[in-house]
Amino acid sequence: MSLGKIKFYNTLTREKETFSPIKKGEVSFYSCGPTVYNYPHIGNYRAYIFADTLKRVLLYEGYKVKHIVNLTDVDDKTIRDSQKEGKMLKEFTEFYTKEFLKDIKSLNILSPTKFTKATDYINEMMEIIEKLLKKGLAYKSSDNSIYFNIRKFKNYGKLSGLMLEEQKENPAGRIKKDEYDKDNVQDFALWKAWGKADGNVYWDADFGKDLPRGSKAIIRGRPGWHIECSAMSMATLGEQIDIHTGGVDNIFPHHENEIAQSEGATGKPFVKYWMHNEWVLVNQKKMSKSEKNFYTLRDIMDKGINPVAYRFWLLMANYRTRVNFVLEALEGAETALKRLYNLYQRLGANPLAGGGKVNQEYQNKFKEFIEDDLDTPRALALLWDVFKDEKISDADKKTTVLDFDKVFGLGFENIEAEKIPKEVQKLVEEREKTRKNKDFQKSDELRKEINSLGYEVKDTSDEQKVSKI
Ligand SMILES: [Zn+2]
């Protein structure tokens, strides 16, 4: 199978580029996953639905995809909140990991090749830090924490477009927190020396040989958040990978720091294509825990809304545009999705027993849309067109819809065909004979009888279509 020519918007170059992976036909793909300290809100899920759609497009276009999604199970927030609840970190994060896995299943998100837990890669993180110390890109501060020296890495800021020159006026500072913004461009923590607030969460790192003589060799502490993703992606996908995704809020500082750490350690370009999805807004403000303007997936399920309707609603917009969430819009999306399911159900009402073909004309258009930086809004409009097109047989329609749904993930394959009761089916078969014999009077009588049982029959040139009234 020939591979599709896909164009993606690359945050790094700020251009739409023709996708060409490092290894022909294979894609190494890393997505920043959740911090398992709470129920994610639906705004967070946009990143996973986007990454899933991207993966589905790559698979559809004939690529082999190795996809890694990490689970951040140790960081400032997981430690803080596990202690608030008086729980062991592992017990606490495992609970929210399970909830996350349930959620992504209900959103029809395909499982990645592997979920990587940060706590399983502490040694790999230490190894990168050692390399950075050796190369003089990292240093130990007076509190024994290890920091990355951003001024020693000449490409710092290339992803976010940050001009480090502008920051020169600022006194060189250090930031130990995992999350901060552009007003706080400073050296960031790679290894955080243990403090009381960390309780029983620590690892002993032997950085002795890479530190100035006389320094304490073993540093008890924990990794910073940014080094976790550098270590997990390189350990599972290699030093150079094709695609790395996340939300736009990951561009700075998280992904900028990942580049600094990874490229600083290996001396090679880390990621070929950086791709980021935009925010979900509520009343024009970003949906976030801190703004308290969020819905979780269980909030919308409690309202009786199918989570797939949320996926469908997001696909109606390009992943790079901001969307404003209102409940009524989601309800509208669910109504539309139900209509699509209904149309699909009706396709099965005829005795088809498979045998349909994907309509080539529509498939070509479909590919053109999804290959253009995942233009799902236009691809969805095309799906409606397929349903409406009377020139296509029901069997071909069904097969075409299922083909498109490999990318949409709306779950058409789980929709059961409408079941026609045996007595109705019998009348339809009888009517088929009268049609052939051009016995229109009898045919009309049979139609009325079918109607009285709650079904209607429509004549097309080569078949009768039966559906519930
Ligand atoms: Zn990450």
Task: Please characterize this protein's 3D structure.
The protein has 469 residues and is of the alpha/beta class. It has three domains: 7-277, HUPs (Rossmann fold); 285-414, Isoleucyl-tRNA Synthetase, Domain 1 (Orthogonal Bundle); 422-468. It has 14 helices and 18 strands. It has helices spanning 42-60, 76-84, 89-106, 122-134, 225-237, 251-266, 297-302, 307-315, 327-347, 360-370, 376-388, 394-408, 422-436, 440-452; strands at residues 7-10, 15-18, 26-31, 64-71, 114-117, 138-140, 146-148, 174-175, 187-193, 203-206, 218-223, 241-247, 271-277, 280-282, 285-286, 323-324, 455-459, 464-468. The strands form five sheets. Strands 6, 7, 8, 9, 10 and 11 form a six-stranded mixed β-sheet that branches. A five-stranded parallel β-sheet has the order 5-4-3-12-13. It has a three-stranded mixed β-sheet with strand order 15-14-16, covered by helices on one side. Helix 5 (225-237) crosses helix 6 (251-266) and helix 11 (376-388) packs antiparallel against helix 12. The radius of gyration is 27 Å and the shape is elongated. The two termini are 44 Å apart. The mean pLDDT is 92. It binds zinc ion. Zinc ion is lined by residues 32, 229, 254.
